[in-house]
Amino acid sequence: MKRLTKHLIVVSFDCLSSLDFPLLKELPHFNALLERGSYCTHVETIYPSVTYPCHATIVTGKFPKRHGVINNTFVQPGKTSPDWYWERKHVKSTTLYDEAKRAGLSTAALLWPVTAKADIDYNMPEIFANRPWHNQIAVSLMNGTPLYQLDMNRKFGHIRNGLSQPELDDFVLKSTVQTIKDKKPNLMLIHFVDLDSQRHYHGFSSEEAMAALRRHDKRLGDITNALEEAGIYEDSTLIALGDHSSLDESKAVKLNVLLKERGLISINKNGKVKDWKAYCKSCDGSAYIYVKDNKDTTTKRTVNQLLDRLLLDAENGIEQVLTGEEAGARGADPSCSFMIEALRGFYFTEGLNGAYIDTVTAEDVKAKRYTFASHGYSPEKENYHTMIIAAGKGIRENNVIPFMHLVDEGPTFARLLGVDLGDTDGKTIEEFFLD
Q1: C-alpha dihedral, 148 to 243 to 54 to 51, nearest 10°
Q2: Which of 178, 285, 373, 428 lies 20 to 30 Å (CA to CA) from residue 298?
Q3: How far, in Å, CA of 432 to CA of 352, rounded?
């Protein structure tokens, strides 16, 4: 298959929404990208629409039930900080970076989700120390490219402030620019989280979120300048995209409180989960409900009756209940017993104590107990699309694609690189390409 570009730079602005499009048109670097490329402001995301499944979908062209990354974190009932799907081994499929490497192309990834221990030439994976005895730098080095990461930390580590934003994205930007100039990779995957963080903790349309968009515009400009300074601008395709949108919420729903009251979750004297028969695993705007023993029809019936009762009153925060089979039909994890969707203004947590529903306060958000905006909702929610802009080598100018799906991005990127992702759920969007 013929390659359409020599260098493909994919920049993910986490939580970039179609609703951001009017502002992006006014920002100089996003507008320059729009004017010289193709774009779609109606990209339908996946279910559940959370970061790690989304990014695994982008590089595989498959729904979560097929690539295996069905949530951000694992089902670890009662654990304060569950482990994430950090490692490449969790993706049960080939990926864009695997196929690029197989084709002899050089690859780089900076904080791209689910790339720990991946075969990427210059890899700074998104992974954090999740045990008290872990050291963040050591964990990163063990799971990525050690010498490359040491070099980036030596040059730019002073910019970081732990995992805080916008400092973390500023560090990623400096590392990105340096990598473009020094390494000139054929495929580069970059993940920025500033906007997502600001929306979680300040609200979708907050001034803090708008400031993050303006910072992202400058980051996009710096990446464009780096391509020019590296002498590869004319041979490069630059893509800016989002993975999901988000919605404001003010009520936190804790279904596990009710499951505990019914004896389906048992707690030890220290308040930790001792055992469980059913558990609500949050995806923020949606949630999986797992029954530990698939043959336990009594527990399934108890949970089903509880959900039917909760559905009768909108104050309970549940918009829809799906069976595991119905969840699988939407691309989510078919092994769940149920999947629930939150009404607007609500989102799900895994809390075990207190009231079934908590009103989110500024104090809660400041303490990072709750958030003011979430994602994870169904792609069928109104005004919940994300977007994509592509410009440069091989891309049509001044071209609008009316609609596409997140699963279409992987096959489209593969076509640019002249590689094949095999049997995907998405299709190549030929309208992006020059004739």
Answers
A1: 70
A2: 285
A3: 48
Residue 135 maps to a domain: yes
Same domain, 69 and 42: yes
Q: How many whole angstroms separate alpha carbon 112 and alpha carbon 11?
A: 10
How many other C-beta atoms are found inside a 10 Å radius of the C-beta of residue 146? 12
| Separation of alpha carbons 337 and 304, rounded Å | 9
Domain that holds residue 35: 7-246+382-432
Rounded Cα–Cα distance for residues 34 and 30 (Å): 6
Percent of all residues in the chain with a pLDDT value above 90, rounded to a whole number: 94
Tell me the C-alpha distance between 28 and 217, whole Å.
Answer: 7
Same domain, yes or no: 120 and 194: yes
Q: How far apart are CA 275 and CA 280, in angstroms?
A: 14
Same-domain check for residues 178 and 198: yes
Nearest by Cα to 186 from 119, 120, 105: 105
Residue 213: pLDDT band with limits 50, 70, 90: very high
Q: Are strands 265-267 and 273-276 parallel, antiparallel or unpaired?
A: antiparallel
C-alpha 429 chain-centroid distance: 22
Element (H, E) at 307: helix 297-311
Which pLDDT tens digit goes with each residue over 54-85? 999 999 999 999 999 999 999 999 787 899 99
